[in-house]
Design brief:
- By secondary structure, the chain is mainly β.
- Helices cover 13% and strands 33% of the residues.
- The strands form 3 sheets. The chain has a 7-stranded antiparallel beta sheet, covered by helices on one side. Strands 7-12-9-10 form a 4-stranded antiparallel beta sheet, with no helix packed on it.
Length: 211
């Protein structure tokens, strides 16, 4: 086995999508420490979709805005509906990584104001969807994978378009924007696996410019 197979490299498997393999590895220890602080203030929870279904992925947020879903719909909110407090400040490590990754993918002025934090356990998934609750679609999406390996799906502008399956390892970062900004994407059900730092869990940090 090649122990260096996932050191940092930039790939563009599809137009508008960049895969930065291993880009977050150097940030990971600090990210996980800062994540613990964020989730102490705003614990993970399973949100409810507008049609009343409980999401299999546990979520929380940090930054100026947080993405929420409930019976009233999908939206960004400056306040955590569970605690009635503002979402925790986005840690400096989160900001540094997201800006550096965006710059490496060609988006030099990206400064996120929202970070959605997803916790996947065995069997959890994210159905194909578009990120379209933001105001400015010229800003990219930066998605960081930590923990066990997941299969990321990236499709087209229609839900029915065929989706590519891309394995994401601990430390990988996906950036998509431009013509791919509104493409459908998702995550296949998480398979049983173990990671030395996170056990059988995958953490996904998704950075956006929401406001």
């Amino acid at each position: 086995m090649d122990l260096f197979a996932h050191l940092t490299s930039v790939e563009t498997p599809l137009n508008g999508l960049s895969l930065l393999k291993g880009f977050a590895l150097q940030y990971a220890p600090t990210l996980l420490l800062d994540l613990d602080n964020v989730t102490t203030q705003a614990p993970f929870r399973h949100m409810i979709t507008p049609n009343g279904l409980k999401m299999s992925v546990a979520m929380t947020n940090c930054g100026q805005f947080g993405w929420v879903t409930d019976r009233q719909g999908y939206r960004y909110d400056a306040f955590d509906p569970q605690t009635q407090n503002r979402w925790p400040r986005m840690p400096d490590s989160f900001l540094a990584l997201s800006s550096a990754a965006a710059s490496a993918a060609g988006y030099s002025d990206f400064v996120p104001d929202a970070c959605l934090i997803n916790r996947y356990q065995v069997g959890a998934r994210m159905g194909l969807h578009q990120d379209k609750d933001e105001r400015d679609f010229t800003q990219p999406i930066v998605s960081v994978s930590l923990g066990v390996t997941a299969t990321f799906q990236f499709g087209g502008l229609k839900r029915s378009d065929k989706a590519s399956n891309i394995p994401l390892y601990h430390g990988d970062v996906v950036v998509f924007g431009g013509e791919a900004r509104l493409h459908y994407h998702g995550v296949r059900p998480l398979k049983t696996s173990m990671h030395p730092a996170l056990g059988a869990v995958r953490i996904n940090l998704t950075f956006r410019k929401a406001g």
